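Ticket #4471: structure export looks truncated?
Reporter: QA, pipeline team
Priority: medium

Steps to reproduce: submit the single chain below to the structure queue and open the exported record.
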Amino acid sequence: MKPNADKPNDKIRPANGKPAPAPDAPATPEELPLDLQLLDFWDKNKKAIIAAACILVAGVSVYLAGDWWLEQKRAQQGRALAGAQDAKDLAAVASQFRGENVGAYALLLLADHQYQDGKYADAEKTYQRFVDEYPKHPMLGPALYGKGAARESQGDYTAAINLYQRAVETPNNSHVLDARFAVARCLEATQQWKRARQNYEDLIAAQPNSAWAGRARGRITVLDREARARGESLAPPPPPSSGATTIPSVLLPATPAAPAVPAAKPPAAAPAK
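Actual output as written to the record:
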């Protein structure tokens, strides 16, 4: 029996034996509605999306954990420094947190504690330890100033002057005026009165309205009074007076030369009679 020619035979296969393509091809992703496009993207990339999300969550967790750890560390350091009651405790904090900011401040506090107790040699060593361990610390200038004070208290004024001068030259030093005044004070102690007076003058010129400038003016008054009692004068001589200003001749307007006046002839001798 022959098949009905009026009905399509969907079982007919091409010569290669593969199924014949459907009459209508499926829509491409670009032709789908937006919500179906998102579902299609998710279906194809969900493993990569989940992996990226896990990495992001892990990174945030690590960051938050690290931030929490830093906060806990700072709190621990603060408690350690605040709980230091004496030089022994400060030395322990300085050693425990060596290389960190709290260790640096513990060293400075230890040196100050030793200085206040009159242990000037120990204070000097501690200040030097700070300079060696923290050469770029913002408190380097005060440390040099403290070491200079320790040397001055031991009577070594020359070494103290050098240390104070280094403190003056240290950038961003909050003890610049203190150090300048200390230099002049040590110069007084070594009877270098003229240099001391000049250093006081320099301090006044640098910060004329500061409290240190007021103290410097007081020291200049004392130095001048003592110098007069010795028959000396420490004040530098006033600059020489230049007198009347002479205008260079090239700047003067040209003046015509006055006509030469002929010399008067002597009267003619009267003829002899």
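Status: closed, not a bug. The export was complete when the record was re-opened. Leaving a note from the reviewer for reference: The two ends are 197 Å apart (CA to CA).
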